[in-house]
Each structure stands twice: as structure tokens, then as C-alpha cells.
Design a protein that fits this description.
This protein is mainly β and 280 residues long. It is built from no helices and 23 strands. The strands form 6 sheets. The chain has a 6-stranded antiparallel beta sheet, with no helix packed on it. It has a 4-stranded antiparallel beta sheet with strand order 3-4-5-6, with no helix packed on it.
Length: 280
Amino acid sequence: MSYLTSAGMTLDETWHASEADYINQVCFSPDDNQIAVACADGSVAVYAQGGELLWRHCVHGLGATALAWAPDSTALASGGQDGIINIWQAQSGNRTHRYAGGRGWVEKLDWSPDGLLAAITGKQLNIWNDAGHSVSFFAAAGSTLTGLQWQADGSLLTSGYGQVLRWHPDHAAPVKEYVWKGSLLSLASSPNGHVIAAGSQEGAIHFWRTRKNNEFQMDGYNNKVRLIGWSPDSRFFFTAGGEALIIWDCKGKGPEGTAPDYQDFHKAPITALAPHSRCS
């Protein structure tokens, strides 16, 4: 089935699969050949591009909460409410490393282009190398961290209550703060690095334009904004908080002053969102 958006984007449903429990995260591999799924029953599953199940392991007590692919797509990291981080061989599903993520459950994971794995647990940001050794020390943030993303310049962004923080592996404290009064639940920086977006508990999305050094906000969401993401070319911005996928066209001065496109793909609230590399 195909869907044509008002901005001219065509979305094709290529396959679908069912999991036994609530899906917390989906994540495409960088080479687009696999998709990983983390579920509330503690399972981690990997599917091939055509929908074939490659492997599934139920390993995280109380739920699997976070996923991240290695930059070469050969390994997958998973984290859960048990506070454990597992590293899996992508094709076979064999576990190669297992180590403690820190205090509390593993909220988010992200792998840098040069192979460093970052994780947030509670108020703490940690980084490990490919051998599972901690390579950076960071001071605890002032509030629970909710979002995590590596940047092209080697820094990291995290979100939490009242701010987005920029960290550098060589500095214990944040090197920059983007302040906004509210509880931020999600984080997505545009691939071109020009815009930082953060969804809030108050039903709004706040944006910082890094090049122009200004900011703006979109209000009116009926639910907490936990799911946001960008197309690889930074033109389209995706959000989901209910049954509909909401697509904003950021061409020109957008998304300010533009109307979004609503696509109803699901009969129940959307719980995970991951733009594909060809989604542009």
C-alpha cells in the first residue's frame, strides 16, 4: 500500500510484523539491511530488510528500552530496565559483550561514527569503547536525561528537564546549554546540524536553530511528545503521539507557518518511530 503526502513524499508499506508486547524502539541499521526492535517483554529482535526474522532474544528484565547500531552495521547494542547493555553480533545474534550501564535503567544508546558507544542512565552520561571499557567521565546532569544523540563534530546532545546539553568526551561538564522551561522527553538534531528539536511533556516541540542562534516552538499536541525524527536530507520532520504520523515539510522557512500532513497508519497509538535512509 502506498501513501502520498501533501508535500509529495510517497510512503510505501513493504512489510509488517507482530511482536508479543509493546514496542519501545525500532532502529534501522546504517546499511538499511536490517531493523532492530526492542519490546516491553524484554526481547530484542532483528529482522532482515524483507521482513524475515533473523533472531530474537528475551534478555532484559522488566523490558528492553534502547537500541543502537554500530556504524558498520555488524553489531547491535541493546539496553533495558535491568540496567544492562548487551552487544550482539548482527547476523548471528550471538552476544559478544555484557556490562552494567550505570544506575537505573538504560534510557538511550547511540553509537558514534568512530565506534564509541554512549548511554544515558538516570542523570548520568557514559561512553564505552568497543572493548566495553569506560573512556570518559561526565558530571551528573541536574535532572534525568531523556534524549541522546552524537553530532558530526564529535560532541553529544542530551535532553532533560529545562534544557538540552552539549557534551564533549574531553570535558566532564557540558560545553553548552540550550535552555527552555519545560520537561523535555525526546531529542532529534537534524542530520545537517542546523536544527535541534526537543519534544516536551507539555505537548509542544521546541526548536533551536544552531546557525542563526534563534529558537521557536510548535504547540497544540494533545499528548506528550515522545517520538520525533528527521529525514536524512533534513527536509522532513516527523512526530507521533497518537495513531497518526505527522509530517512537517521544513523546506525554505518551514516548519513555521506551514500545515503538517497527517497519515493514519495504525489503529492504536504509535509507540516507536524510525525514519529510513530513503525517506526523503
